[in-house]
Specification:
Layout: E1 2-11, E2 17-28, E3 31-47, E4 50-54, H1 63-68
Organism: Agrococcus casei LMG 22410
Protein name: SnoaL-like domain-containing protein
């Protein structure tokens, strides 16, 4: 299973909030087959001059919990 796709579900409906789905795909013989194996939804909330990661219910997710889900962030939002 490999990660690879970020989908921006919504942004701007509520200022300072974005819903993002990270999809993980099955890989067969080194090729991604296109079917989604698993998806994780995160909510990014702009707070105190920075983006905070929460779950769908709005509970803050500490960095270790995000990493435990197998999600890595690179770059900037």
């Amino acid at each position: 299973m490999v990660g690879g796709a970020w989908y921006l579900n919504s942004f701007g409906e509520e200022q300072g909030r974005a819903e993002v789905t990270i999809a993980y795909f099955w890989e067969i013989d080194g090729e991604r087959d296109g079917s989604i194996a698993r998806a994780t939804k995160l909510v990014l909330v702009w707070e105190d001059e920075g983006w905070k990661v929460t779950n769908e219910a709005g509970r803050p997710m500490p960095p270790q919990e995000v990493l435990d889900k197998g999600v890595s962030f690179t770059g900037a939002c």
